[in-house]
């Protein structure tokens, strides 16, 4: 009996979303096991057996266990049949270029979009106060990273990263991370992403190339954005009624 691939994920995590989307795009059957970060389920003894580091995503393919989203994407691209070559090219030079984007993303972007969104919006979901100072600091890193995508990774030819005509796992992973900005209010979203027209065009091309699964999996963000907006409106209403100025919680 063939074992079903298990994905241990929380769709609020961009790293989890990219793994889910890749499986859906490539017809890989899987069982989605929800690890609710807001409830601290990654700390359970049961999940420790899957990933001792207690981070998500993780997978179990038969008896084989693996964590780290980029490692998972590489594994899936190689382990499952009929995966199109453009995702993770067999050509050494093309694959090395894809790896360079993935490595740059891991060393640079955690201080960019993910950190900015966490400190400005998502923190309370896991019990951590909003941190305006950290948000301001990480916004600078985010802007610099977006500028690098436009000047280095996006080229004049090709719709996707590295001048490619088809997306790779680097496009999928980086787009999912940038899409975390969707939880921001419209004004902040436009202020940060608006100046980067080539990045916006690439994101649109990526969404279209990965339709309908990209948008379906990313819809978790839209739902959270609506919830966060209601919370902001409630807080603002209470402040207006009390006549007090808002006190922003900050934790260094």
- Residue stretches low in confidence (pLDDT < 50, at least 5 long) are 235-242, 244-252
Structural class of the secondary structure composition?
A: alpha+beta
Instruction: Write down the Rg.
Output: 19 Å
Gross morphology is globular
Number of helices: 10
Largest sheet: 4 strands, mixed
Beta-strand residue fraction: 5-15%
Helical percent range?
55-70%
What is the topology, as strand order, of the major beta sheet? 2-1-3-4
Order of helices and strands: EHEHEEHHHHHHHH
Average pLDDT figure:
85
Number of strands: 4
**What's the end-to-end separation, in Å?**
52 Å
Describe the protein in words.
By secondary structure, the protein is of the alpha+beta class. The protein is 55% helix and 7% strand. It is built from ten helices and four strands, in the order E-H-E-H-E-E-H-H-H-H-H-H-H-H. The chain has helices at residues 14-25, 45-50, 69-79, 92-108, 113-122, 132-153, 169-178, 186-193, 197-209, 213-242; strands at 5-9, 30-34, 58-61, 64-67.
Summarize the structure.
By secondary structure, the chain is α+β, with helices and mostly antiparallel strands. The chain is built from ten helices and four strands; from the N terminus they run βαβαββαααααααα.
Write the layout of secondary structure elements.
Layout: E1 5-9, H1 14-25, E2 30-34, H2 45-50, E3 58-61, E4 64-67, H3 69-79, H4 92-108, H5 113-122, H6 132-153, H7 169-178, H8 186-193, H9 197-209, H10 213-242
